Amino acid sequence: MRGGTPFTGDFGQRLRHLRARAGLSQEALAHAAGVSVRALADMERGRTRGPQRRTVRLLAEALGLDDDEAASLETSAALGRPRPRTATGPAAPSTLALPRDIQDFTARVPALARLLELAQDIEPSRPAVTVVAGQPGLGKTAFAVHAAHRLAPYFPDGRFALDLHGMDPEPTTPRDALARLLGAMGVADAAIPVGTDDRAGMWRSLVGDRRVLLLLDNAVDEAQVAPLLPGTGPSLTLVTSRHSLAGLESVHRCDLALLRREEAVELLTRIIGPDRVRAEAQAARDLADLCGHLPLAVRIAGQRLLSRPHERLGKLVARLAAEGRRLDGLQAGSLRVRAAFALSYRQLPPESRTFLRRASLAAGADFSPETGALLADLPYDDAVACAEELTDAGLLQSDATAERYRFHDLLKLYAAEQVEAEDGPGIRDAALDRATRWMLRRATAAALHFDVEHDPASPYGDPDPDSAPIGREEARAWLEAERAQWLAALRRAHDTGHHRQVLDTAEAMHWFSDLNQHWEQWVEVFQHSADSARALGSGQEEAVHLNYLAWAYNLCVHDPSSALTTADAALVAALGCGDGLQEGWALGYGAGALHRLGRTEEAQARLRAAAHRLASQESPQARLAELTVLNSLGTLLRQAGRTAEALGIHRRSERICRAGIPGRRDELIALYHAVAQQQIGNDLAALGRWAEAEPSLRQALAAFEAAQMPAWTEPARLDLGLVLRATGHPEARDTLLAARDALAALSSPRQSEATTALATLDEADEPVDPQRTS
What we know:
single chain, mainly alpha, 5-stranded parallel β-sheet, two-stranded antiparallel sheet, 37 helices, 9 strands, 5% strand, disordered N terminus, disordered C terminus
């Protein structure tokens, strides 16, 4: 060996000797090996005499030991590791033996590894407690039982499992639980004290110096568990509960998550066998998804298939695909997903039960306490309290950063069933109508923050001014977070005939929609509003909202055929009511659709007709529309090779902006000016006047960024990147990269243009092979 003479002490002494020889402090060795300083100190003092192999290997690598020294260190560690008891069993009678382990237990490898480390590092004077919590169906008991069997060799003085019946109407009392534990330790009935405190004291004294493993399954709350926990000694207690038991101090937490899809398929494979899964691999994956990757649901599906060896997986998938029958399909014998949820639901106070089932009416993947309060008809603070209680009970999951909550898919189906069973259609519809009215008023008020024609000093009409978003940033955040809710509310208002509210909300959304052109939902929004205008018999409003819809087809879902049909309908409606402004918009949107369909000459003709119609109008709105049409006309002319004419058109737009438009704020005119500058920059680039093009595009980009309009910002960034590439500017690559990624996030067709530009830039940067050019 390197030191010349083997060192023959126990593991702690050997480790200390090797560290000193290497000239390392405890802190340095702990850092190099990736262990804590306290753990290293406990090893050297002999408190931890048999660390696990992985820890020893890391220490050996950090100390630079050769193979022989590393093997010798591992041997000394192995001597200190606890051994399983012989066939004579533990010293204490085991009347609370561990339940049978599940042979097909799957996944949870990291959680098991953490428990194994904990078991190996328990201090003699400080017993360890781990709380295994989570929603119904996560397999908490199966995990704890499997872990207990894996950990059993480390606890030769007794392994006990006690069901605390936390979901029963009358859970086990601490007094009765202690009597059973004392009996399992061999205490005669006559010797067990009467009082709970005395029983707890005797229990703690009996296990105080023993390596005991205690599994307390299905705990209801902290008060039930606390008297059962050992006070001293090298014991480990595993507590499972559907509640978080947040009040227990100095405990380790193991919050189980849903299985990953591949883990759910693996569990299914272990239950029914690999042949059936391989034969229907996609059906197995679909089945895992329909079970929501919930272990209980996957197990039930597997057990059901196991009992029907000739049934195809696809048949069960088809049955579960129907939401109304999914919970019916997830039962096998006494195993039922619905029953697991019902146990927790029945334990809730009435107010929390109401909140849980009504929250299932919320749209989207998650919901806010605000939405829950509206549906449950509760004050906001009470709704927050209910949501937190349901989170602690494992029935809702809270967002890590925002005050929002979500259901597991199957639990949401169960809660929806309870709405039908306990509330009925009348109460359900009243809850949805109440939430619809409030949501649309809040959405309208929030959207008005972006309406350039709304006076900021005027009221916004929010249903609760005290909690209303303040300013554009808060309004944007609310509209984005609650998109699914206000869209569902708009849909319901349309379907139930509240057409004026639909129109008011959609009209308020008009300018906000420009900031979020990548939202495909605008097609639905403006289709509903156009339908509502027609239902109200308002031809002028129908023309307005058909134009909005044509815009959405053109720019949000890139469907020019539908855009052209809609623009033509808007033109008919505008002509019918004599609205020249809407005629101009309809001609412009139709031209955009024709251009996208490759009908360039027709598009130019419509744009010229639109510009002529709008020029005859005197309103400020007509000037803004004229600017839009002129910019579009110039773009088409440039693309047709008539660049000088295009530049003249765009210079005309710029002159209108510089002159100003009475009754319109400067910041709005600045945006139209930025659009003109962007097109002027593109015209100059097409003419090869790169040095003149760059400042125009930079000014346009800065204006769009300041206005926080990504749908306008990123195309301008791409245009600038193309000019920078042409001039060999060092910023070209970074600008094009940023544009490509942002355009992809916006689902813009121009992302491919950015990708191509980057590829040509890469080709230009490739070194030339002299042999190939010679």
